[in-house]
Request: fold
Amino acid sequence: MDVGAWLRTIGLEEYDAAFRDNKIDDTVLPSLTAGDLKDLGVGFVGHRRKLLDAIAALRAEASTTTPLSDAPLPTEKAARDTAAERRQLTVMFSDLVGSTALSARMDPEDLREVISAYQRCVADTVRRFGGFVARYMGDGVLIYFGYPAAHEDDAERAVRAGLALVDAVTAVGSHASQTSCCPCAFYRSCFAG
Reply:
């Protein structure tokens, strides 16, 4: 692809030299950002917007191109293996309520133990319902139902896991308040290993 010719087709041939001097070719062009365009000297917002829209159109065109006529046709099995699959995904986020207040009262090491124990409790509970822990984010846990394995009742599983999680955390909290020890010691003794 001739980038200079492409710039002429969208009426922005004035940037041809800047693109050429910065070695912008058809492999780099689809990944340019607004910041990159500023660095290239595209000072007008309208010109940057026009370029970004044209780049997006290039990306869309590249994703829908058909294979070359001399390329081998994929076999039926290969086509099945690479075919995209659409599935429903239920996303659940679990957050430790009151962790900010708790962080003001506890040493960071003890707080880390409490949050780690909480995260282990969440992970164990949601796995029983077929949930997948996608990410730990501070005192929160991002959970997927329907990934990597889909079930007919993933949304219901997420609700049941949430209710079970409330019970599990409440049980842990009530047991900690009945003991005279600090909560982190309780978490260490109950969730060790």
